[in-house]
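Handout, page 2. Input:
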Amino acid sequence: MKLNKLQLKNYRNYQDLFLEFPNSLNVFLGENAQGKTNLLESIYVLALTRSHRTNNEHELIGWQEDFAQVKGRVSKGVGETELELLLTKKGRKSKVNHIEQKRLSSYIGQLNVILFAPEDLSLVKGSPQMRRRFIDMELGQISPMYLYDLAQYQKTLKQRNLYLKQLAEKKQTDELYLDILTEQLVEFGSKVLANRLQFIKRLEHWSNELHTKITNHREHLAIEYVGSLPLESETLADIQLSFQTELQKNRKRELFRGTTLIGPHRDDLRFLVNDQNVQTYGSQGQQRTTALSVKLAEIDLMKEETGEYPLLLLDDVMSELDDNRQVHLLETIEDKVQTFLTTTTLEHVKGKMTVHPDIFYVQHGQIERNET
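Output:
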């Protein structure tokens, strides 16, 4: 998979920009606050229709403008695809080959990206919410149906929590509607959980392979899914039965608390290095190596699932890694993955790869391209 062209209009500090990417390694070079990350973000937005930096889409629209537009031409084994995303104050529209897509699941997956930013090094030590978001964003690109089930689950969860609160405050008394919402929650939540469990098994396989290589076979990595449901097996039927049973057990507590206490929205991941919880007992170096292994593992996992390598977006992450981890990162992507990298200096890249990068100098939202 390759992004051949990118066109921006009124996107953050870019009024009108057109770039071509004939090569596999593209470096956005410049000082801080010049617009390097905005470029990387626009590719991420083109792929996933939302930003990794903000939940407020209005921030993506240029100052005093009514809309922002991101266009891209993507080539895959089957040919080229034109993608377009239009952002307005009223919402967003997405198009594939000039045809509007009404469902998000019909658009996402046309362009797959993996973003690695400095905050991803906190994947291990960060909050459970951060790890759940990581699963949802990566799995959503591989499986559009997962995105649909997740959206339905989140919608039902919101409705159920609201009704539980109304019951707790005696504003409602009929529990029949709660039963209906519970049934829907179990239906969609069980599908979400089943997909997550399968995804984590595959991610563990690829992550451990990379982690072993980076640590010269001194460490092995395991990933455990820490769920709120006790599961005897991972079949959809057993997950549904367990979910239904646990919700029934916790019904009085939920009615008292006014919120849903069981489900995928409360789950987490645990990383084990040599059978020790790296979140609790690992050094900062082990935690960073674990995060790097997990992020890079997604490259091979996506290739395995979709038949195409994703794009890799590296947002000023090289400066956060020591020489050993830089070399392993660059070796993993060389001649394999189209990569877009932001940096303030070229010393992290030059001399460490046989691939010659295209350098895009970024200054005040203006781009000058040089080949080296």
